Amino acid sequence: MPENLRCVVVAVDGSEESMKGLQWALDNVKLRTDGSLIIIHVQSPPSIAAGLNPGSIPFGGPSDVEVPAFTAAIEAHQRRITDAIITHALKICADNNYQAEVKTQVLIGDPKEKICEAVEELHADLLVMGCRSFGPIKRMFLGSVSNYCSNHVSCPVMIVKGTT
Amino acid sequence: MATKERKILVAVDEGEESAYGLSWCLKNVVTENNSKDTLVLLYVKPPHVVYTGLDGTGYLFSQEIIATMDKYKNEVADTVIDKAKKLCQDLQDVKVETRVEIGDPRDVICNVAEKMSVDMVVLGSHGYGLIKRAFLGSVSNHCAQNCKCPVLIVKRPKNVAATSTST
Predict the structure, then answer these.
(1) Which of B1, B24, B32 has the CB atom closest to A156's CB atom?
(2) Separation CA B35–CA B95 (nearest Å)
(3) CA atoms of B96 and B158, how far apart (whole Å)
(4) What is the pLDDT of residue B59?
(5) What is the CA radius of gyration of chain A?
(6) B157 near A CB under 8 A
(7) Is the predicted pLDDT of residue B55 greater than 60, yes or no?
(8) Quick one: what percent of chain A has pLDDT higher than 90?
(9) Start-to-end Cα distance in chain A
């Protein structure tokens, strides 16, 4: 009797490739009847999303000023992005008439580390990710989440790219 | 889930990790429902290392030595393929093909995957740390980046390392 997967984690972000990964998982992964599919989205923290801080005050003004409205606006926008991604992911699940249980989770932080942490905590049996297919130079500067995760995670990793 | 015909390429080598990858694949990817799958077991022989001998720094191998080395490499290939085939024995209706190629595993796996237009590639991973990886390179890393099809990298958890895989 094959041992089916109990917990499959799919990491999504705003890219088409990660949705393709989700699509692949829906098509190909067989879960146990009590198994669940967990869709994770990792949001980058507001400070990084904002880039540098909003303009320092010149002529010797206070340097570490918090601009609450600024951070709040960034967070609100991030939340909108996250909601759009999660909704799109759930729509794909619904379109495929996916029978098993689907849970979603949103984490804030560095995607590479958060995905690895989540996989540990959830004791996932399989991690599915898309891959943005950067060339070697872009990869050197922007880094590769799928690379990092496949090296640091203890469960099998499925990297879905291109056409299926 | 509709039954589709999928071609799955599993790359095997002498290490236990790829055998674990194969058995994980058999347990979780190829189940009785999808009986139309084709499993392709690929073993890549490292290429002949040819020393020119002109500059005197390499070894000059005689024909016999080369023949012995080839015979040994073929025996290794046969053992690996047989071991892999044994793991696949219990599957009914799943076609199992085997291939032995020569060359750099990274490139050969990607090429074969493309030529046979497989639906996915399954690799074990030696689990090297950063330094070993820098010197020895990583086949799974390279394939994950360069294969056009989905790649599954199966790592062996440390607590399974002591026991041999069966079932």
Answers:
(1) B24
(2) 9
(3) 29
(4) 60
(5) 18
(6) yes
(7) no
(8) 2
(9) 28
The token pair at A37 is 């599919």
For helices B16-28 and B63-87, give the axis angle rounded to 10 degrees: 30
β-bridge pairing A5-12 and B7-12: unpaired
Q: CB contact, 8 Å: B55 with chain A?
A: no
- Candidates A28, A97, A145: best to mutate against B (most CBs of B within 10 A) is A28
Question: In this complex, how many residue pairs, one in chain A and one in chain B, have their CB atoms less than 8 Å apart?
Answer: 73
pLDDT of res. A73: 82
Chain A residues in contact with B88 by the CB 8 A cut-off are: none
Judged by CB atoms closer than 8 Å, whether chains meet at A150 and B140 is answered as: yes
Task: Kindly state the tokens that stand for A160.
Answer: 């879905």
Greatest mean pLDDT among A35-49, A115-129, B127-141 lies in A115-129
Which pair of tokens denotes residue B100? Answer: 């032995």
Nearest chain A alpha carbon to B154:
A156
Sign (positive or negative) of CA dihedral B29, B30, B34, B40: positive
Q: Would you give the DSSP letter of residue B158?
A: G
Contact A19, A12 (CB under 8 A): yes
pLDDT band at residue A66 under the 50/70/90 scheme: low
- Can you read off the two tokens belonging to residue A11? 């990491």
Number of residues written out for chain A: 164
| Neighbouring C-beta atoms of residue A20, cutoff 10 Å | 19
Across A23-148, where does the E strand assignment appear? 31-43, 101-108, 126-130
d(CA A10, CA A71): 29
Beta strand ranges found along B13-81 (DSSP E): 38-45
> Letter for the amino acid at A108?
I
Q: Is the CB of residue A127 less than 8 Å away from at least one CB of chain B?
A: no
